[in-house]
TrEMBL record:
Residues that bear 4-aspartylphosphate: D71
Gene3D superfamilies per UniProt: 3.30.70.270, 3.40.50.2300, EAL domain, PAS domain
Protein name, entry field: Response regulator receiver modulated diguanylate cyclase/phosphodiesterase with PAS/PAC sensor(S)
Lineage: Bacteria, Pseudomonadati, Pseudomonadota, Betaproteobacteria, Candidatus Accumulibacter
Species whose genome carries this gene: Candidatus Accumulibacter aalborgensis
Span of domain EAL: 467-723
Keywords: Phosphoprotein
Amino acid sequence: MKAIPNVDFSPQIPDLPEIASSILIVDDDQRVRATYRQLLAAEGRSIEECSTGNEACHRLERRDVDVLILDLKLPDIHGLEIMAWMVDKHIPTAVIVFSADESIHSAIRALRHGAFEFVRKHGDPEELIDAADRVLRRRRIEREHALMTVRLKHSERLHRFLVEQSPDIVYTLDTNGCFIFVNGRVHALLGYTREELLGQHYSVIVHPDDLEHARFAFNERRIGDRASTNVEIRLQTKTHGVRHFESRAIVTILSAQGLYGTLEGATRKHFTGTSGVARDITERKKAEETIAFQAFHDLLTGLPNRVLFKDRLGIALTQAQRKGQRLGVMFIDIDRFKLVNDTYGHHEGDELLKSFAGRARACLRSGDTLARQGGDEFTVLLPDLSTGDDAALIAVKMLAELKRPFRVAGADFLATVSIGISLYPENGETPEDLLRNADIAMYQIKGEGKNGYRQYTPEMHSGHSLRITLENDLRVALEKGDQFELYYQPQVSASQGTTVGMEALIRWHHPKNGLMAPGNFIPLAEETGMIVGLSDWVLDKALSQLADWRSKGFTSLQLAINLSPKDFERDDLPERLTRHLDAHAIPADAVDIEITESLLMKDAEKNIALVKQLRSSGLRVSIDDFGTRYSSLNYLRRFPVTSIKIDQSFVRDLNPHHHNSAAIIHAISSIAYSFGLRILAEGVETEAQRHLLSELACDDMQGFLFSRPLPAAEFEEFLNASAFPSPDRPRVS
């Protein structure tokens, strides 16, 4: 067989008549169909819709649809079944899968079922528009080829033209495996001219690692159904010359069959060589690899995700058990990461995560695995540890590396981390146990002040279990609402000898633990998000009780209620307070909302606006524990508060021989009076403290010297019969 010469086989074909392109949108959501019908509309296009798979199949049987835009999840037939039916029926319509099912397996299955592209429904609409344009252009080319086939089906020129214009490499080999024909596509894909390959052995274009695999396909003697089909082989590009390629190899699927001829006078055909077609699937392989990578890696940092980490941990445990080795697991949480997101936005938060991942990885050994669990949480697998101290050394190294600040929004930010460590076999023998115990150890160091590491001990588990139990109990108590009780501590005017108000303080009658003070469960409520519901319970019960006392004539009492900083993170706080006041017909100026001093510094602009709303509604606002933080006078000037409470730590140290506390209280009093604010001292326990406070111009006081917090009934008795009665108490004539 002689090589086919390089002849111009291009047939002269008249222009095709304009034929409307047909698009069929199949989706059970009418709004989606209508929206994309409008987006895809263009001159020369006919767009139809179907809402079910059966309707789509019935329409496709007419075999005149160019593009099928198909949702996988239809009410009657799955999209993949429709695609399989189309293959079985030889329906020539090109398919674009357009689905809300973002599963990686669905994407891969759709591509393998012959989908031209897989477009996610919640992505950019332009992706679907561009995909439809590409398919229609391809259909136009296919239509041109089909028309040429009809007009020139008996012409050898047509067949040679199609071979030359094929997007695939078409070749013929002699019995020795040398090229005797190859089409021009080889130049575009591999960089070789036709002349450079004619007479050369096929091995010059096969990747060395695939030579053994390729030998059977390039020497194929079988024909028909038994011949090689879709054999995946890597072909090498030319490594010299003027052409430049992104890589030195492409991935192809190769189909080949033997060629046979008849010699003159012979009765049997003899083998004359092999012909085949190699299709470039490099982009498809890249897409599949990308999808597979995304299934097991975090897209932001490129690190393994929790699925891949758990798989590697399981393998490492098996090896450690077989070899009698020790391994470690770290659970890492970036401290104050939410502050970065809230202050600078998620983009800067993402940049911090990527920078942290780079630094943390540099602290590890080559065989260690750093993974992102999600959010600001990371895990580390430390195989083959000599001693338990090896994990601690790596943690120390990581903490030291983080002493260098990160650049966040153009400024330095010192990030710290809390690291929990668990070891095999001491702290667990399964991936679940090791991860859980490392997580518990991480929360232990967080509770101790963050910026450090702890190795898991069994005592931590019992404490963690108690915390989980308490959390569940608190949630049940909040749902029932009958386990809480409000106590009231009087606030008195020392000079007038009367009770001027009271602070509402919650107590929890725990079914097993008995009466619990707020310090034992309020932090847990704040951490778990239950604090808002708890605040609503306090507001409802306290205002209901105040309404009862006001109906009995105690109309001058001022009710103080503590609100959590978490309450101020919600924009509906003013509406919640107004709703409770209206429900019990309480005038707003009878209620004093106490806020912490730290609230002055956190998200100041937003909180200033919220406090202004509270004040405009008539509510009073006090700063609790004043003097324990570092708020500036500027904050105090900008927050429209009505009073400040001197923290009990200053009052506790108040005595004639302790001048520092007296000086601080004197300074706070001066500040309060200069701003026209009421001042109240809490934690007053002795007559000496009372006397000194009076000398320092602090008349309103609260503390055990006057009364402990009391249940409602006892507090009412206090109003009537104590040494500090309410000025509104009923008079006996």
